Amino acid sequence: MDEHDRGSAPSLVHTDSVDDSRITQSRNDAHVPDLFPVAGCGASMSGMRDAALPETCCTEPTLWLWAGKAVYVGPSLNIDYHSGSILCFAVGVDAPFTLRDEHGEQWSVRSAAVAPRTVHRLEAHGERMVFAYSDPGVSRSDRILDAASTRTGGFGLRLPSESALLELAAAGSPDPRALVETLCGPEPRQVDERIRAAVRIVREKPGAVVAAADLAAAVNLSTSRFLHLFSAEAGTSFRRYRLWARMLHVGEAVARGSDLTTASVEAGFSSPSHFSDSFHSMFGLSAAALLAMGTRIEILDSEPAP
C-alpha cells in the first residue's frame, strides 16, 4: 500500500499526482528525452501544429475508453519511463519491443503485462502497438502475471494469449473488448461488493472531492480497513485508482469536444500542469503529444464495475 494511504484518508485533489521521484531518476540515468517528437495525422488542436505521420504508419491511431478500461491501437510510441496506476499490457503487432525496468535491465518481447506502480520504459521497433489498461482486481492481475512465460518482479513477459492477440490486433478494425477479454481472461471471483460500490462512486464522480474516509463510512468500514481492502481487492491504492478514474474522465470529455484544460479541471486536477505532469508520469508521454498524432478517441458503452 502507498505510504500516503496508511492510517488515514489520503489528501484530496492536490495530492493525487503520481510520485515520480524514481521515474525522474530513471530518465536522468538513461539520458532519455522527456517527450517523443510530436507528429500529427491531419487532426489539429488549439495551439498545435499539424504534421504528417511517418509514411510507415498505415492505421489511424485509436483510443477506446469504457468502464475502467482503455485500449490504444496505432503507430508505435517510444514511451518514456513511467509507472501506471493499474494493470497495463503491451503487444508489438509488427515486431518485438524492448521493455526496460528502472534498473536498466531489458527484455525483447512481443507481449507483456506490467503490474501497477512498476517503473518501466518501452521502446517499440515495429509500426504498430497495442496498449491496454484494465482494472480486473488483484486476484486476476496476479494470475495474468504468473501465467506469462517469464515472471520477473512486476513484469509478465510473453503472455500465453500472444498468438491470439497478434491475430486480433492485425485485423483492419480490431475489437477492443475482444483484446481485453483475451488479455485478462475470466475473473475467478468477484471483487468485494464494498469495493465495487466504492469503485462505482469514483468512476461516476472522478472530479468530486470524495475522501477515502467518506467512502469508508459509506460502506461501513474504518478508513484504515477500507484502504487496506481496496488495495487488496483492486490491485492498486485508492489514491492511484482515483487518479486513473480522473484520467479516463479527461479522455471521455475530450472525445466529446472539450479541450484538455477544461476537461482536466472538471476531472479534479488542480491545474493544467498538475494534469500534464500526472499524465506523463502515468503513461510516459504527454497528452498533447498523443492527441497531436491525430489519435481518435471512441467511447464504448459502459459495463458494470468489476
Describe the structure.
This protein has a single domain, classed as Arc Repressor Mutant, subunit A (Orthogonal Bundle). Helices cover 36% and strands 19% of the residues. The chain has helices at 21-30, 138-147, 162-169, 176-184, 193-204, 212-218, 223-234, 238-255, 260-266, 272-283, 287-292, and strands spanning 62-66, 69-75, 79-82, 87-92, 97-101, 106-109, 111-114, 120-124, 128-134, 150-152, 155-157, 296-299.
List keywords for this structure.
12 strands; 306 residues; 4-stranded antiparallel beta sheet; disordered N terminus; 36% helix; alpha+beta; 8-stranded mixed beta sheet; 11 helices; Arc Repressor Mutant, subunit A; globular
Helical content (DSSP H or I, runs of 4+)? 25-40%
Low-confidence stretches: 1-21, 23-58
DSSP summary: helix tally: 11
In the CATH scheme, the class would be: Mainly Alpha
Topology readout:
Elements: H1 21-30, E1 62-66, E2 69-75, E3 79-82, E4 87-92, E5 97-101, E6 106-109, E7 111-114, E8 120-124, E9 128-134, H2 138-147, E10 150-152, E11 155-157, H3 162-169, H4 176-184, H5 193-204, H6 212-218, H7 223-234, H8 238-255, H9 260-266, H10 272-283, H11 287-292, E12 296-299
Parallel strand pairs: 1-12
Antiparallel strand pairs: 1-2, 2-9, 3-8, 4-7, 4-9, 5-6, 5-8, 7-11, 10-11
